[in-house]
Write the structure tokens for this entry.
Amino acid sequence: MKFATKAVHAGVAPDPSTGAIMTPIFQTSTYVQDAPAQHKGFAYARGANPTRAALQKSIAALENGKHALCFSSGMGATDAVIKLLQPGDEVITSNDLYGGTYRMFKRIYEKFGITFHFIDLTNAENATPYINDKTKLIWLETPTNPLMNIVDISAFVEMAKPKKIKVAVDNTFASPYLQNPLDLGADIVMHSVTKYLGGHSDVIMGALVVNDDALHQELAFIHNSCGAVSGPQDSFLVLRGIKTLHLRMERHCINGKLIAHFLKNHPKVGKVYWPGFEEHPNHAVAKKQMRDFGGMLSFTLKDDSIEKAHTLMKSVELFSLAESLGGVESLINHPASMTHASIPKEERLKSGLTDSLMRLSIGVEDGEDLLADLNQALEKV
């Protein structure tokens, strides 16, 4: 089944009791049982809900996976993965990743005796000195947030498999439409479903997708035991959003390419971070493991001034200044003070995340209108 067909049909079927073509919202906390422990697969909604079950089948199909679990947020999903670990375990991850992930790793789980190594993963060999018998997980983002670095998933899988190290990939920026890490050998795929899968800036949710039955059982136990589950209303909204994922991603990619080239050629713009440029680090890897280059990019001004960056962000009209990404509307974000404020400044600067860097989530509006908006804002800088 091709992707577009899966987006519309996978995991869902007409409701057998009514014939409703859309999966109903099963807004219930509990289910009547025929006898003690004899039920129809649903006993208590924290453990399972029919609307969530349909969504999990849909997301698993999109990622070419066997099992999916939906959480109350992307951080809830990430939290479940780290709960697979024990005190003394070590994790290798990127020095350029979402600020909320960094905050969880450093401020929550380090005090429980888990060690995290934040290193440049654009070259897989950089991880070699950090791998030892305590290494249990490699946590990847690709493209990374916000510098759009590309990490070679296959290279890390090849490194990890002989040592029985799990590889987890945050696939939020790419979405299943552009990239399928399980096909490249990863053990776990994480999504902030809030972003492209939901696609309409009206849901907070996360998801994990796996192929291994035993790993699924471990994560499902954490899912139910710790309770960070998604609700039926949100699950319904994401099921609806997924039906147009392929259409939205096509436009995100078209607009992303248009704006990336516009900014690259603008005299007031400094550096543009977008993996579609041939000179972008690891462009060849992006071309190999992705189907297109997406609608996310970051850039600086040639006059690398925080004040002028603020002027630009205040001057845009179609781009809204807001956190998050992946919705139908275009957003502009200031990582240093918004999504990545939890990372100490000295650490941000080491990875190249300057105070004047701006991140764009390119929406599905008319591309020419978006160009005109950025152009008028740049004229005011």
Remarks:
- The chain has two domains: 3-242, 245-379.
